[in-house]
Structures are given as structure tokens and as C-alpha cells.
């Protein structure tokens, strides 16, 4: 488990879970998100999925040991001992002696058959990165896929030296281009307004919420950007208000019925997530 102290330490390293975001194959983050976490002081908010993973980590590690026949008492699980670093690179294993990675998810996509090396791309990169830092030849991965029960799968991911070499070279280039000079500018009291930051193609507003604001510091804004945002925000609020008004009229028409029917035979009713959804009419082929 990653403690608050280790999270703070991670600001000074390019970590295993960062790399898939930097190269754009992680659905949960981007290169810009990683850059913010290294350059600014940020909060360490834990999401519900992170809590689930942390709460079940020791049990998944125990399952890995059971599946592969490892002595559970010999496996290292001390947080500090699971931290590894090599230059600017670092990683946290979930178990060591041998190296282990525990995953908890509700998504079964891209998890291959038991015993294969087919795992989601962002996790495959994370594990290769761990081998870059630790020098290990393989990492044992265990996953609990929780969807109508628990599907437990186990994998041995072997070291890919060609990929690891590319990660090491590209990681150093990215760090020296975006992180080192940005930190130097801020340390000298400068501004990052004109600094060439990583792409914001997939901006996450949650990332900006994590930045710890400095009292008394005022930043200059681009007036044109502000005007565009204000116009778009006003339009979005008006559209949401209109949508809510129309939805209320439709719900009034539904009353206590299970569903509402449109002229073309489509049904508007609640789905499994308790949200109203439109279902196309069934077509009978003649």
C-alpha cells in the first residue's frame, strides 16, 4: 500500500504507474496529469476504486502466493521495503521476494486467460517499468475481477529488455524536458505561463482540484480563453436547465408506469443502473 509519505516522495520520481499516462495508453490519466503531480504540491485524495484496491491488496497477494506455491511468511509486504528507486525511476511493488503486483477491478476487458501474458496495456507497461527499476526478470500478477462474483486470474509477466530500454530513454527525455525546468522556474519564483507543458488533449478537471493553492498568489489569465469558457458554461447551464424541465414533463407523462412509449414504438424506461434509457422497438424479420 502506498502511504502519504511515499506519495510525497513520488513527486521527485517518474513512477511505474505514471508511465502509461505519459505515453497516452492509460484511460484514467494523461501526461499532463502526471506533470501536475510532479511540479505542484497536490493533495493525495483516494478514490473509491483505490480504496477497494488497497483494502483487498493483502488478500490478493495471499492468493498469488497460494496459486504459485510461494511461502507467504517469506514475502515482503512492508511499505518501505516495497519502495524501489533507480535514478529518476521508482516503483512500489505489492509484494516482494518474489516481485508481485495485485490488481482489483470491475472490468474484465483485456484480461487474458489464466496463465497467459495478456493483461491491459497500461498494467503491462507498469510491470515492465517495475522490472526496469528492480532488475527483476519477471513479476507475478494477480487480479480480482469483481463482477457478479470474483474471477481470480494469475499471470507471470516476463522482462522485455527492448521495451524497457525504450522506456528508460524516453522517460529521461520527458522528465528533463517537462519536469526539471518547470520545477526550477517555480523555485525561482517564476511563472509557467509560457512554459511548453505536456499536451492537454485529455484534461481532467479532477487534476486541477488536487493542486494546493498558495495564499496571496494571483496568476494572469488569458481574457479570450475566459470569455470562451464563460459563454460555453452559460450555454451548458441553460441546456441542462432545459433538459431537466423536459425530463420532468416526460416523467409526469409516465406517472407510475414502468415505461413510456414513443410514437415509433421505442420504450423509455430505467436500466440496470437506475437511469432512464431509450430502448429501440424489437423488429420482427419476415
Describe the 3D structure.
- There is one protein chain.
- Helix 5 packs across helix 6 (161-187).
- Helices cover 43% and strands 16% of the residues.
- The radius of gyration is 24 Å and the shape is flat.
- The protein folds into two domains: 4-167, Lambda Exonuclease, Chain A (Alpha-Beta Complex), CATH 3.90.320; 225-279, no CATH class.
- The chain has 286 residues and is an alpha/beta fold.
- The strands form three sheets. A three-stranded mixed β-sheet has the order 1-3-2.
- Strand 5 and strand 6 form a beta hairpin.
In the CATH classification, which architecture of the largest domain applies? Alpha-Beta Complex
Q: Give the CATH topology of the largest domain.
A: Lambda Exonuclease, Chain A
Top-tier CATH class of the largest domain: Alpha Beta
| Total separate domains | 2
**What is the mean pLDDT?**
90
Secondary structure tally: strands: 9
Widest sheet, order of strands: 1-3-2
pLDDT < 50 runs, ≥5 residues: none
Overall spatial form: flat
Strand content: 15-25%
Largest sheet: 3 strands, mixed
Instruction: Report the C-alpha radius of gyration, rounded.
Output: 24 Å
Distance between the termini: 60 Å
- Name the quaternary structure: single chain
Amino acid at each position: 500500500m502506498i502511504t502519504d509519505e511515499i506519495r510525497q516522495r513520488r513527486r521527485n520520481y517518474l513512477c511505474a504507474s505514471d508511465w502509461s499516462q505519459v505515453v497516452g495508453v492509460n484511460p484514467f490519466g494523461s501526461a499532463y496529469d502526471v506533470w501536475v503531480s510532479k511540479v505542484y504540491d497536490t493533495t493525495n485524495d483516494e478514490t473509491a476504486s483505490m480504496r477497494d484496491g488497497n483494502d483487498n491488496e493483502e488478500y490478493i497477494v495471499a492468493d498469488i502466493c497460494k496459486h504459485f506455491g510461494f511461502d507467504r511468511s517469506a514475502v515482503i509486504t512492508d511499505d518501505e521495503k516495497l519502495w524501489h528507486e533507480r535514478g529518476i525511476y521508482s516503483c512500489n511493488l505489492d509484494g516482494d521476494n518474489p516481485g508481485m503486483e495485485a490488481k482489483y477491478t470491475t472490468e474484465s476487458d483485456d484480461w487474458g486467460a489464466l496463465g497467459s501474458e495478456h493483461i491491459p496495456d497500461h498494467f503491462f507497461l507498469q510491470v515492465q517499468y517495475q522490472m526496469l527499476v528492480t532488475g527483476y526478470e519477471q513479476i507475478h500478477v494477480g487480479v480480482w475481477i469483481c463482477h457478479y462474483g470474483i474471477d481470480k486470474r494469475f499471470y507471470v509477466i516476463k522482462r522485455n529488455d527492448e521495451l524497457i530500454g525504450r522506456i528508460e530513454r524516453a522517460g529521461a527525455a520527458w522528465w528533463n524536458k517537462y519536469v526539471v525546468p518547470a520545477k526550477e522556474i517555480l523555485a525561482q519564483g517564476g511563472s509557467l505561463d509560457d512554459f511548453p507543458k505536456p499536451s492537454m488533449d485529455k484534461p481532467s478537471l479532477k487534476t486541477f482540484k488536487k493542486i494546493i493553492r498558495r495564499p496571496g498568489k494571483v496568476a494572469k489569465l488569458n481574457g479570450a480563453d475566459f470569455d470562451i469558457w464563460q459563454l460555453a458554461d452559460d450555454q451548458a447551464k441553460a441546456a441542462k436547465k432545459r433538459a431537466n424541465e423536459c425530463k420532468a414533463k416526460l416523467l409526469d407523462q409516465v406517472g407510475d408506469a414502468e415505461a413510456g412509449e414513443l410514437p415509433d414504438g421505442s420504450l423509455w424506461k430505467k436500466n440496470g443502473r437506475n437511469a432512464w434509457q431509450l430502448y429501440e422497438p424489437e423488429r420482427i424479420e419476415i
